[in-house]
Fold this protein.
Amino acid sequence: MEKLVIIPTYNEKENISNIVAAVFNLNLGFHVLVIDDNSPDGTADIIKKLMPQYAGQLFLEQRTGKLGLGTAYIYGFKWAIEKGYQFIFEMDADFSHNPDDLERLYLACKEGAGVAVGSRYTKGGAVDNWPLDRILLSKGASVYTRMITWMPVKDPTAGFVCYRKEVLEVINLDGITFVGYAFQIEMKFAAWKLGFKITEVPITFIDREFGASKMNKGIIKEGVLGVLKLRWQSLFKNYRKKVTNVEIKKTVKLQPSDSVM
Ligand SMILES: Nc1nc2c(ncn2[C@@H]2O[C@H](COP(=O)(O)OP(=O)(O)OP(=O)(O)O)[C@@H](O)[C@H]2O)c(=O)[nH]1
Ligand SMILES: [Mg+2]
């Protein structure tokens, strides 16, 4: 129980079997958990058909409806912790994240990072095929997040990530309530505030070829307001306390300076 890749899906029938095959063809011991939100296009049925072929390595959790990317990951994180996985990955189904990069994220965590971020905006990272408006939105989100939070992460909205199990155990996952870009930002913000090392691993992000994007105005609004909320909470409330899992709190040293950062 070493490495688990969590793939959230909503209407990914064109991509799901290929992405699952791409992970298993690496032959590097990655297991895959798909969290499907009752996709009307039958994504879950495709997974069910594949499961016998990858018995004990491919898992499916189905939820009742489209509940958002953030809550899908939180569900997956809890599942992974319970099963005892040591390194837990976030990856999209749409091939924007190249499965060949999984091992580099893993190695970054093995070498001491608590969180390894597949980064478009660190040296060596890139974005391929994205229309200008998406590049501007994504870059704008990164600059905005860094200006407001001062978090030293060049690609704070990145969704291609490896977490050490300890990081996900220490974070109070029930306290993470955002669902879109803001979810990705808050996970990194919480890990950073709790003192974990975040390493950015350069990746090339490729725009999806098949299927439809789930990006919408609500996600952007949540991101803009969410970042302000995070900063507010970390300035005037004890943010570390808020995001620390109460069961583990006794072993995490909360410093008196918390409330001013
Ligand atoms: N389970 C679940 N998965 C979701 C939900 N929304 C999006 N996803 C999945 O999350 C991943 C990322 O979604 P995308 O639509 O690619 O969103 P994005 O990468 O931010 O936007 P694009 O770059 O335009 O593709 C994909 O695997 C989606 O199928 C959701 O509400 N529930
Ligand atoms: Mg995508």
